[in-house]
TrEMBL record:
Gene3D superfamilies found in the cross-reference section: Immunoglobulins
Matches recorded under InterPro entries: Big_6, Ig-like_fold
Residue span(s) of domain Bacterial Ig: 70-130
Protein name: Bacterial Ig domain-containing protein
Highest taxon listed in the record's lineage: Bacteria
């Protein structure tokens, strides 16, 4: 037999076996489930859209003014600043530093914090009584001049 005939026979047998296996696998789920199972109810009900909960004026908010998300900084110490509830305790944490300050009577705060070279994930938390709000800001400390 020539090599060409052997290759043709091998391809033909492969297609035949592959097709037979495909038909067999397509029939297995039908045979296992059986045809006497009643179809289930496929109708769905849409739940009502919840209305937004109004925010009370006394709720704890936390707005970060500086640094902005993904900001490039050129100093290893920055002042995290923002606004929250007046008198709230604000905690700023970097990978190497954690500092605490109290917001003033207008809710403004500024906290000096040290960062590592490269990307730094800063966690800023505002606490007032039982309320807690937090934000994560990523900054990138670079030592090269742009």
């Amino acid at each position: 037999m020539s090599l060409r005939k052997e290759m043709f026979i091998a391809i033909f047998l492969g297609l035949l076996l592959g097709g037979g296996a495909a038909v067999l696998f397509a029939q297995i789920p039908k045979n296992l489930l059986g045809s006497n199972i009643a179809p289930t109810d496929q109708s769905t009900t849409v739940p009502p859209t919840p209305s937004p909960t109004p925010i009370s004026p006394d709720s704890l908010t936390l707005d970060i003014v500086f640094p902005k998300q993904q900001e490039l900084i050129e100093e290893d110490e920055i002042n995290v600043s923002g606004k929250t509830k007046p008198g709230a305790t604000v905690i700023a944490t970097s990978g190497i530093d954690e500092m605490t300050a109290a917001a003033d009577e207008t809710g403004t705060f500024s906290i000096p914090i040290t960062v590592n070279q490269g990307a730094n994930e800063l966690l800023i938390v505002s606490l007032s009584g039982e309320d807690k709000t937090e934000r994560v800001v990523v900054v990138n400390y670079i030592t090269e001049e742009l």
